[in-house]
Amino acid sequence: MRVTQTMLTQTNLKHLSSSYNTLAKVQEQLISGKRIQRASEDPVVAMQGIRYRTEVREVDQFRRNVSEATSWMDLTDSTLSEVTEAVKRIRELTTQAANDTYEASQRAIIKSEIDQLVEHIGSLANSKSGEKYIYNGTKTDAPLVDMTALKAFLADPALDVDSIYTGGVPANSGKIEFEVSKGIKMQVNMQPETIFGRDLFEGLRNLSRLLGDETSGGADLSAELATLDKLGQGLITERAELGARANRLELVDNRLQDHEIIAKTIMSNNEDIDIERVIMELKSHETVHRAALSAGARIIQPTLLDFLR
Asked: What is the pLDDT of residue 308?
């Protein structure tokens, strides 16, 4: 077989081009940190990467849902705590006013404070998480209580309690659920009628009316203490239920954190490079490439013209 200078040159250039391609591929891996740059390089790795990335994004969304649900529940618990304290204060004032030694003027002062506390409870019923009202059931774009109507309700015993609600209770009640894991939904809201229902406002208005009635005695006011105790116990029960949900939500969040770490680890093992191995591979290819360039220079340099001088 006849070997010519052209054949040597072409063969050398061919191998040099292949060496450049290998160096370029390893450098791309080092720069991007990924084993493959195009799906055609390894379809199996590419398909697995798509599946793992989908799983990671799904877990991220569930964690965002859990975060929003936690914020909603934390605000709910905070407002329930304030309502409970307000009812406790009303009970204390009622106990004081039930003393028959209190004059009408003193009871009027107590009535004024209780009315303010009732309005405060009404404002708590209109609490918002972001742009959503948390106590108006599924109608989160409107407040639960009309504050102007609440003031009128306290002043006029003839008004029906339904007049204070913007949309009626329980007309707007309903569950608001967040999907916190695949196939698992959790209710984040409390039913408005169980916290800010008719019994609460009717009982408080009746108490306010008795305080403003000079003919009512201590026994009449003492009879209202049982109603206040019932309202307070109902609030404690609702807070206990909310706390149970919050505890479960915390457990779900812990599991999602573990799931996220595992999913990202698997995704990394599938597509990320072993940087130490790739650096060693790059150095090895560089050494081979330099040797090929050196050998090629010796082969290509001598020609017939070099000997015809």
From this structure: 64
